[in-house]
TrEMBL record:
The keyword Transferase does not apply. This is Cupin type-2 domain-containing protein. It comes from Maritalea myrionectae. Transmembrane segments: none annotated. InterPro entries: Bacilysin_H2HPP_isomerase (IPR052535), Cupin_2 (IPR013096), KdgF (IPR025499), RmlC-like_jellyroll (IPR014710), RmlC_Cupin_sf (IPR011051).
């Protein structure tokens, strides 16, 4: 069954839209305005992030990396992470298992 989810305001300058979900996997689009932030946080899910567009500075634990279109990386379970959007863009995140808090 194909299900459509609305885009919602996640944080200031950030919208979130669940693209697809299953109990074991979820795909989510995050659109950021330049200067918007994803606050430092952690969660039990393993996360894969793909940069569809824009430029971002990510904090992963003690490390900072800058990423742009086409870059991707894995965030392990419980790893503290967050980002600052340097140029407006979109991140496509996959979570396993699904993030029920996004539904």
């Amino acid at each position: 069954m194909l299900k459509t989810y609305p885009a919602i305001a996640a944080d200031r300058g950030v919208t979130r839209q669940v693209l697809s979900d299953h109990k074991d996997l979820m795909i989510v689009s995050f659109k950021f305005e330049a200067g918007a932030e994803g606050a430092l946080h952690n969660h039990p899910h393993v996360q894969s992030t793909f940069v569809r567009s824009g430029k971002f500075r990510f904090t992963l634990g003690e490390e900072q990396i800058e990423v742009g279109p086409g870059d991707s990386f894995i965030i392990p379970s419980e790893a503290t992470h967050g980002c600052v959007c340097l140029e407006s863009g979109e991140l496509i995140d996959s979570f396993t298992p699904r993030r029920d808090d996004f539904l």
